[in-house]
TrEMBL record:
Membrane topology per record: Multi-pass membrane protein
Species of the source: Flavobacterium granuli
Keywords of the record: Cell membrane, Membrane, Protein transport, Translocation, Transmembrane, Transmembrane helix, Transport
Gene Ontology terms: biological process: intracellular protein transmembrane transport; protein targeting; protein transport by the Sec complex
UniProt keyword Glycosyltransferase present: no
Subunit record text: Forms a complex with SecF. Part of the essential Sec protein translocation apparatus which comprises SecA, SecYEG and auxiliary proteins SecDF. Other proteins may also be involved. Forms a complex with SecD. Part of the essential Sec protein translocation apparatus which comprises SecA, SecYEG and auxiliary proteins SecDF. Other proteins may also be involved.
Chain's role: Part of the Sec protein translocase complex. Interacts with the SecYEG preprotein conducting channel. SecDF uses the proton motive force (PMF) to complete protein translocation after the ATP-dependent function of SecA.
Protein name per its UniProtKB record: Multifunctional fusion protein
Lineage: Bacteria, Pseudomonadati, Bacteroidota, Flavobacteriia, Flavobacteriales
Coiled coil: none
Amino acid sequence: MQNKGLIKFFAILFALVSIYQLSFTFVADKVKSDAKTFAAGNPDKELKYLDSISKEKVFNLGFTDFTFNEVTDKQINKGLDLEGGINVILQISVKDILKGLSNNSKNPVFNKSLADATADKQGNKPYLDKFFDAFDANSKGTVKLASPDIFANRSLQGEGGVDFQMTDAQVKKVIKRKVDESVESAFGVLRKRIDKFGVTQPNIQKLGASGQILVELPGAKDVDRIKKLLQSTAQLEFWETYKIEEIGNFLMAANESLKKTEINKVETKEVVKDSLSALLADGKDSAVAKKGNNPLFDKIIAQGGGPVLGLFSPKDTAVVNGYLKRADIKILLAADQRYAKFVWGKLTTIKDAKDKDVDAVELYALKGNRDNVAAMSGGVVTDAHDSFDQFGKPSVSMQMNGQGAKAWEELTAKAYTQKSNIAIVLDNVVYSAPGVSSGPISGGRSEISGSFDVTETKDLANVLRAGKLPAAADIVQSEVVGPSLGQEAIDNGTNSALVGLLLVSLWMMVYYGKAGWYANIALAVNLLFLFGILASLGAVLTLPGIAGIVLTMGTAVDANIIIYERAKEELRDGKSLSEAVVSSYSWTGAMRSIVDANVTHILTGAVLFIFGSGPIKGFATTLLIGIVTSLFTSIFIARIFIDRNIAGKNDLSFVTNFSKNFFTNFHLDFLKYKKWAYGFSAVVVVVSIVSLSTNGLDQGVDFVGGRTFQVRFEKPVQAEVVKEELVKVFGSAEAKVFGSDDQLKITTKYKVQEHGSEADEEVNKLLYDNLKQHYSAGLTYEKFVNAYDGKKLGILQASKVGPTVAEDIKTNAYWAVLGSMAIVFLYLMISFRRWQYSLGAIAAIAHDVIFVLGIYSLCYKFMPFGMEIDQHFIAAILTVIGYSMNDTVIVFDRVREFLDGKIKGSFYEIVNKSINTTMSRTINTSLTMVAVLLIMFLFGGESIRGFIFAMLIGILVGTYSSLFIATPVLVDTISSVDKDLIEKHHLEA
């Protein structure tokens, strides 16, 4: 080996750098462990402890030292499935941005195009492109984007804006830039909010040009609070309000009108004797006050007063909204009230007639106008902080700029004179509606008070300081993982990794003796390099990533196996040990096969990285890094020890007494059985296709959209019973045993298209209300939903995928599989210079993919573990493609070598000999892979069991197809003329 000294130098340097990078992870873990011990299970105390030492020196190397923040920046980051926390993908509403850019245009073509773009479910296409396509189709050239009532408005005119003379193509460029600027603004606002929220190592990044923003909050536990924080647009407005006596006549008229259509639908309950009921009748015997006769007033659960029209149950707000928006009801408003805007207040708790706490919301009527614009915008707020009001209750104090201070003084002067109230409205929710009792308020200071706790005022001040989002931010995909589940994943992953490492190492020693020891040393160095690179890149380690590392162990020895098997052949041909080693490490020896096999593997891994997301991208990352590091260590590190042995004892044989006769006289006529193989595979393919078309697949929420909850109970439950309970409230639901009998995976599509935090909270509460009967009385809603250290019951993991995102994921999956097959086909055609090699390989891959899909289609209904088709499954399929190619390329490379050489025999005999001489490598690699996968299947945890099963089946089928499908297809597609030329050459040799 040339430049041996240089290779040693770089290997040692690389090892030292890896140890240096990994040291930060060890230190960070030690500090976090100390924080947990100090906090004794209190998450807030733990967070405060870590915050307090964030800038303290915790790692001293003698020549330099690092603070805790610097250490955590350099450590290996754990994904949510290992750390626990919350992961969401926010979709900034491009539709809202376009509306804003057009000044809420009323142009029918514009608005129809917005609606068409929203209805377009084509996967992987940005909303803006859908809008442009819809506008072109709807306008047919008759309406321009640069029309004055669309984008050539006053706010978009000027330099870099839109003018009347622009073509649609020119306007599209401007609008794309403006939308990008809005998304960038949203990104900045969200980053400010998250930085103030108080989680360690938050991750926020834009996802391409889709308008989507990924937010990861490791260790975050309060689910509902975080979703509200992220989705609040912080649209602060100040509105004048009507008082109850001003709007009472309308409410009475509305109630009377509703009787004509709703009288048979209303609930029968006692009418609240409040100011409204007093307006309704003069006497207690009035028919209007009887139970069940008042569609609107019967829903009032507590009296109002001043600007509060009444308090209603949250479950009735949708019905009341429907009443107040009806055209026949709105027409009852007085002429000067026709623009009245009815808005709900913040959720509060009151006492009912039985002195029990019940949820309630207040109804307000705001003084609107033709343009539906507030009297004053919150854009004038320059600062906000949490404080306490004059009664000692939590509140939020705000400071306005000069312009805002003047407007605020005028607005409060008007309210003081008219004895009216000013509603402080945030994201269309009234937080308070104070009156002005002491004259105009100057100086620009104001206060939001109400039924807050300290945490709420901190969050509210946070979002006001960070500023408003330019458009609504919808959570289209989310995942919540409890820390206890993350620890279980770490334990399962570590166990499977250790057992897999031990198994592979033991087999290499048993089969190759001393050379196996050298391969094991190379494997250990490979793992050091792999983790060192992950740390230096700031990569995120996920549970599938751990699976990728364990798989790397199985494949890391693959190059050693190819080299060792080649060296054994050279030794049998009479070469000396040194000659055999040099030959096996040469390009004409094992290197060509190793390069071809790993390039195809890298290509499929790259496709997986490009099209994957989240944990799947982590799997692809570790897989790709593992391929590179395993090649380096297998080829160079193991070679150093081999050369050292040759220079010393010279007693290396690459076999043991156990393995010395394995495959030495193996002569199976593989091509003789090709018809049987074709027949068997044809039956399997037909059965698989029939099952896929009739039985289908168990598509996960990744592909169809929905909500999934992993729920653990105190004792075993019946999945069918839970399913029936949930169907009654959700309409549709699935419940399956997940691992043990006390754990279920619950899936529903209930309100999956509604992205607000209110919808998510409603689903969580419905789930709790209907499952709490299976728990003892001590499990509160907060304990059921939120994550905390040591959590064993309730929701351990939850995820949501919106239908549009699901369509994108499905489209990505199709392109990933087809793209990887196309790339492999092209590479093999270039490398082998015959299309027949590519066809044979693709035939084997297609066979393997259909086989695995067929197994999943046939078995998912009765297997004791999950067999969902999701992103993890697609990762498994692409991995199967990569490993199947490894086996096929090794055989094809030997076929090419023998056909280019001087081996005597017919074409048929040469191909058969090629397969037989590679059998040792094929079986050894497949055995190590199957053994490692089997260990992961048994010990890796329930969440990746289906993923591992797909790879396990795929590796077994891939080994079969490389021998009995790929090579026969190659043989059958080579023309008889070419075969005659090949045989003529080799028979004369």
